[in-house]
Amino acid sequence: MSDAFAVAAVTETLRAILQGAVGRVVPGIMVTALPPDEVVVQHPAAGLNIFLYQTSIDGGWLNADPDGMRPGETRRSMLPLVLHYLVTPYASGDAAPSAAHRILCVAMLALLDHPELRPADLKSAAPFSNLHQQGERVRITHVPLGVEDNSKLWTAFQSQYRTSVAYEARVVLIDSTLPGRAPLPVVRRGEDGRGLEAAASAAGRRPALDAITVPVTLPGHDLVLTGQRLDAGVPSLRLAHSLHGNRLVQDVRKISDTEVRAPLPDDLAAGTWSATLVLTMPDGKEQATKALPVSIAPRITSSLPLPVERDARGTASVEVTCETSVHPDQRVELLVGELPVPAEQFDRATRTLRFRVADARPGRYALRLRVDGVDSPLLDANSAQPRFAADTAVVVT
Question: Is residue 183 part of a domain?
């Protein structure tokens, strides 16, 4: 999702796309984003104006859960906006009608070639917003306007009618400014903490990957995969991430036909990866299983518990270092007790993340670092019984 600057980011990106396309055809042309009654055409200049004349709510997204929210957590629903734009060419002089029509056609072709706003376009044209991090693409669609619709619009503009075309940008997802709640995880389920027991069918002739024994793990730890006929060939593990690329782990140990174990690289970045087991068969051919998600947890390397002092306004500035690098386009939060706090700055060289907790209250709070929905460990690994680690905390004074 994105911030309150997202609407301005869409407008600025559309303006930049149109400026680049129309500017190649009519040198010196200016693309503006003004109300139609404020557009002034100067001698013998030509221009193009894109005006946001209406916003509406996308009902299909209104009740959807925010990105990164996990079961048991509560967060305010996001604001899903549909932006309605009017694109109008302006020209003056004897050849004004012809020039205006040429400008309008070039603008329509430019938007036809950009049916969606790519992250690179948004990041280049509107670096002041984080809209480029939104998972759902913003799609640009032509909207037909009838004579009556045009008449109502231009009457409301109190401006002379000009030939125009309408487009909508759908959907812009804006985060609520109110904090949510992320309760601490359950440390025990059922008697002895064993939870439910289930057994998978052994049917099937092709090698198949059924599950990852521990779906959330740390870099450097072993990943245990279970399935069927996993001893049919020499195994290797293929890990893929949309931002961090691909990794290949060849040091895979076969335990049995239903289980293999692979050590994860120590520098594997946090987030959700896709794991595929590739078996090299005796005849030299490769067979790949289906991909399963594996969550790589970040690990806080700051000295814990972390002491933090509030400033005069009651704001606590928290700096946390983590074991692996974090990509700028990943969603990063610091969970202070039950309060999720979004990251403000990344320092990739020192792997330092900075957070600001507004209206912080003095006290000791459990501390978790969340990267793309994956939390850093909070349990005491040395305890025989499941319990929270006493030192994994922040102390606000």
Answer: no
